[in-house]
Amino acid sequence: MAQSLATEWKQWLTENGPRLLLFARGWSHCRQDAEDLVQEAILRLWHYQADKGATPPDLPLAFSTIRFCGLNHHRSETRRRNREGSVVYLNDFQDVWLDPVMEDDEEAVLLREAVEKLSPKLREVVVMKTWGGLTFAQISETLAISPNTAASRYRYALDQLSHELRRLKENRHASA
Amino acid sequence: MQAPDPIEAALARLMPTAMSASGQRSIEDMLDGLAAESKVVRIRDWKRPAIGIGLAAAITAMIVLPGLLKTGVAIVSSPQVRSDVASLGTFLVEKSERVESMSDEGWVADPDGSAMQAVRLRMVSEDVVRDEETGYTVKISEPRDEILLMPVSDF
User: Fold this and answer.
1) Per residue in A27-86, pLDDT tens?
2) Which helix (H) or strand (E) holds A149?
3) How far is A143 from chain B (nearest CA, A)?
4) Nearest chain A residue (CA) to B28
5) Helical spans, DSSP H, in B19-152
6) How far is A65 from chain B (nearest CA, A)?
7) Contact present, A38 and B19 (Cβ < 8 Å)
8) Alpha carbon distance B66, B85 (integer Å)
9) Is the ipTM above a cut-off of 0.85?
10) Considering the entire predicted model, what is its pTM?
11) How far is B57 from B76, CA to CA, in rounded Å?
12) CA distance B52 to chain A (A)
């Protein structure tokens, strides 16, 4: 019984781990911190699900719990330190959030950089919609915002990404 | 059908990075440990409605039976007995409180104008009471919403 329970959760982790990690990156300064955040969230989810048949949770709840854990961690930090940390982090190009399917694809590399530069509010919606596969209704529940706000943030993020991608391409071609 | 936004198509080509081997192993070890400690009894889906019906019947019985039977059972004096349930001839067996769910409500300003992080908590108080006359044990759940405000001045 205990073994099958662990196996079920491990399968869930294998399936959803990368997208949970990606979401956690928005609340962490490095990959290790993000993995710790995912682990803490899974521990909370385990106890939370104990009353519900101990089955692995659905994805919106998992995102929501990671966000809550991230919020707790960041509460004690100053905005300035947070911003400085992000600048250092975003310049660390060896530590990427997303793997382009083709590393030599210039557009994919530029887009990866643009996603990392999105504001947290926009990025979390893009992550949940694109890689989490959540609907706007589910995103709105996770973030405690209206579905219209979730959809607006998503559209606004796509516009920003398009604009940023164009700008980065022009800069690269100009310097080439 | 609406064609996908080109930027959406480009995003779909990016894949989230996998967890590191050590990170994955650490979580899997934790899951093994939790599962070993777990004493969870799984309830099959088809049994859930039966449990709900049974609980509803028990609560109804607790409300109706004291009036119908007029047992006149003496209330045993005990510090654990709450006066409200004791008056019904029932005894408090267990009392618990848990957080059912929580959601971020964003930032709000308190009366002083300071920024506060609001978190909505869905709390559930549960009392398990036993009717001395019938031997019925009934669980009474009282859900309520609470807003927790945390200062964010040092955020």
Assistant:
1) 888 888 899 999 999 999 999 998 888 899 999 999 999 998 888 877 756 555 555 544
2) helix A147-175
3) 7
4) A10
5) 21-37, 48-69, 83-86
6) 9
7) yes
8) 11
9) no
10) 0.56
11) 26
12) 14
